[in-house]
Amino acid sequence: MVVFLLCMVLIVGVLLEDFSSRYNDQTRKAAIYISQGMEEAGMDYLRDLPLQNDQRITLIAQDGTVLFDNTTDPAVMENHREREEVQEAFAEGTGESTRYSDTLSKKTYYYAVLLSNGDVVRVATTQNAAWTLMFATLQPILIVVLVAMILSGVMASGIAKKIIRPINSIDLDHPRTGECYDELKPFLERIEAQNKQIKKQMHQIEIEHERRENLRKEFTANVSHELKTPLTSISGFAEIIKNGIAKPEDVKRFAGNIYDEAQRLSNMVGDIIKLSQLDEGGGAMQREPIDLYEVACSVKSALASVAQKMHVDVCVKGEHVVIDAVSQVVDEIVYNLCENAIKYNIEGGSVVMCVQEDALSVRFIVQDTGIGIAPDEIERVAERFYRVNKSHSKEVAGTGLGLSIVKHGAAFLGAQMQIESEVGKGTKVSILFEKELV
Ligand code: ADP
Fold it and tell me: Which of 72, 272, 277, 360 is the most exposed place for a label (fewest CB within 10 A)?
């Protein structure tokens, strides 16, 4: 349709140009005929001339006075001496010009011829004539274009529907069944491959979902159990004191037990909150430059009394390495690792915290000479609430959440936790920060 319309504009332009030049040609010829007629018969020729439909004939005297005009009364017409074509005719015998006529107020072509008596006869035609002729010619063309447009619209819609039908009938679940264009086969094969991949991924998501759901259930069960144990002993001791059964000399010991259990509960709730913060992506925690060596030193002094009680020697080695991390998370990691290395150590054992840096990574290592972890337990120690050998761990206060916090904290900072251990010899826990991530 756009092509049709453009064609129409082109046709109108070409026709208008052609008709105008033909009309101008006719005007020139008419002026010459009339001038010859007037040479023969004078003014009478003009008066007897049958009125042409849109040709205007004017006779102008040497001084510019209009002597005759076939459309307007010459008495009311102004002097024509200054008209371009009239001046040209006086000078050269003939003259022409195209302009907007004052009298006709339309674009007009003028042709003037000088007569032997010194007067000038001028013939004028307006471009209206060319437009009128063009519209007359254009009418059948317009009808043809209109019919062609309607026909092409109907046909285009029919053909489009026919082409689209097999595409619309493709079964996207089984794209290769049914008939369709050969050109679409590679596309359909890709859809089928993608369908398979989506199914596979859905299956994996379901498995992952189930795993997470089980973990969640296990976690909830563990939380309830772990919270209930200290609560049971707290309420047991409190009940004995409340009922007055406790001997006065035991009250202090019972109150101490209540205090210890409440402390354990409070630690556990604190650890659960830290873990859930890490699970949620750390909230609004800000990264900042942190000197790992400094953190290790301050943790060493924070745990000095515990280490002293256990007769464990703690030392910090390595170099000052600054990483870009969240201070609270780094503190937790270092504190938990150092605390474990002291707690699960032997009398007179030692703990070494070491900060190392090479071209690719930064390593924070905590090595102890403690009881160690059995190979099959290493996998599990970072699980929530998991404690090796519950009976032994009972002697050592803990929530079973420390290594879980370390592992999640490291992952949050883009680092990895590695545990190497040998029962009876000691444990080495490394936190590996890849350089581009720190
Ligand atoms: P918690 O120390 O509160 O029990 P953790 O998550 O920190 O909990 O540790 C889980 C378990 O892993 C501990 O109960 C302990 O049995 C074992 N463990 C952790 N660190 C060490 C270590 N340095 N040496 C030996 N055993 C360890």
Answer: 360
Do residues 399 and 268 lie in contact, with contact meaning Cβ atoms separated by under 8 Å?
yes
Q: Which atom of ligand 1 is nearest to the CA of 398?
A: 3
Mean pLDDT of the chain: 88
DSSP character at residue 285:
P
Kindly state the helix (H) or strand (E) to which residue 430 belongs, with its residue range: strand 426-434
Residue type, 24: N
DSSP state at residue 102: T
Cβ of 267 closer than 6 Å to ligand 1, yes or no, is no
Residue 372 and residue 426 in contact, taking contact as beta carbons nearer than 8 Å? yes
CA–centroid distance, residue 44 to ligand 1 (Å): 133
Mean predicted confidence (pLDDT) in 166-172: 88
Q: Of ligand 1's atoms, which has the minimum distance to the CA of residue 386? A: 10
Structure tokens at 395: 């002697």
Cβ of 404 closer than 6 Å to ligand 1, yes or no, is: yes
pLDDT over 80 (residue 377):
yes
Over 90: is that where the pLDDT of 29 sits?
yes
Q: How far is the CA of 403 from the centre of ligand 1 (A)?
A: 7
Distance 367 CA to ligand 1 centre (A): 13
CA 381 to centroid of ligand 1, rounded, Å: 6
Does the beta carbon of 388 lie inside 6 Å of ligand 1? Answer: yes
234-277 pLDDT, tens digit each: 999 999 999 988 888 889 999 999 999 999 899 889 888 888 88
Q: Ligand 1, atom 25: nearest CA belongs to which residue? A: 372
Which of 169, 173, 179, 177 minimizes the C-alpha distance to 195? 173
Average pLDDT over residues 164-173: 88
**Pocket probe mutation, ligand 1, options 267, 269, 388, max atoms within 8 Å of Cβ:** 388
The answer, yes or no, to whether any atom of ligand 1 lies below 6 A from the CB of 300, is: no
Instruction: Annotate 195-249 with DSSP letters as a single string.
Output: HHHHHHHHHHHHHHHHHHHHHHHHHHHHHHHHHHHHHHHHHHHHHHHHHT-S-HH
Q: Are 332 and 370 in contact (CB under 8 A)?
A: no
Tens of pLDDT, residue by residue over 301-357, are 999 999 999 999 999 999 999 999 999 899 999 999 999 999 999 999 999 999 999
